[in-house]
Amino acid sequence: MKALLIVDVQNDFCPGGNLAVPNGDDVVPVINSLIEEFDIIIQTQDWHPSDHSSFASNHDNKESYETIELDYGTQVLWPDHCIQGSKGAEFHPGLNTNKTQVIIRKGFRKNIDSYSTFYENDQTTGTGLTGYLRERDVKEIYTTGLATDFCVKWSVLDGIDEGFKMYLIQDAVRGIDLNGSLQEAMNEMKEKGAVFITSDQIHK
Ligand code: VGL
Ligand code: ZN
């Protein structure tokens, strides 16, 4: 079985949002066009408490996009975003979520951020997604959404470690790009064995 994974297509990551990815909303029509091609659709939703440790506002004398050391390693600090229950945490209103069967919420523990949909940033706390996918006999995951260089990247890398064949649909992702992080992310995914495709290869 193959699954479509839609990462963090939420208002705060789209133009006008608190952590807007440039042209982030461009992925919406592309993802909508793919939905009919898949029987298993999974979405992730960044879902932070307002006192989350990844927010620069919760640290003294720190600005967004600086880094700090947390128990599990280096963490980028972000503007407040995707706060539980807020408008910014809702899915983009144009995204067709009707066929979505599972929504994995992540980043809800105050002291651990979570980019990947498989593991939180400590790389040990699991989300339970692997078990779900194995039970449904999924072998291949087609990845879309935001942001290419953070949540998409970590989901793809962890997915490969979990034994899935991971595809990246290049026209269905957009990146933040902090100091070259976008190119670096593409290289890391490719080196680890992710398969890069475009949406027209699925439609045919
Ligand atoms: C993300 C930064 C912080 C993402 C989430 O979805 O890529 N990036 N939280
Ligand atoms: Zn976040």
Could you give the topology of this structure?
Blueprint: E1 2-7, H1 27-34, E2 40-46, E3 67-70, E4 73-76, E5 102-106, H2 129-135, E6 140-146, H3 148-161, E7 165-174, H4 181-192, E8 195-197, H5 199-203
Parallel strand pairs: 1-2, 1-6, 2-5, 6-7, 7-8
Antiparallel strand pairs: 3-4
Helix pairs in contact: 3-4
The structure holds pyrazine-2-carboxylic acid and zinc ion.
Structure characteristics:
6-stranded parallel beta sheet; binds zinc ion; 204 residues; 23% helix; alpha/beta; binds pyrazine-2-carboxylic acid; Rossmann fold
Explain this structure.
By secondary structure, the chain is of the alpha/beta class. The protein has one domain (2-49, 80-203): Isochorismatase-like (Rossmann fold, 3-Layer(aba) Sandwich). Helices cover 23% and strands 23% of the residues. The chain is built from 5 helices and 8 strands. The strands form 2 sheets. It has a 6-stranded parallel beta sheet with strand order 5-2-1-6-7-8. The longest helix is centred in the last third of the chain and has 14 residues, at 148-161. The radius of gyration is 16 Å and the shape is globular. Bound molecules: pyrazine-2-carboxylic acid and zinc ion. Residues 8, 13, 46, 78, 115, 146-147, 150-151 line the site of pyrazine-2-carboxylic acid.
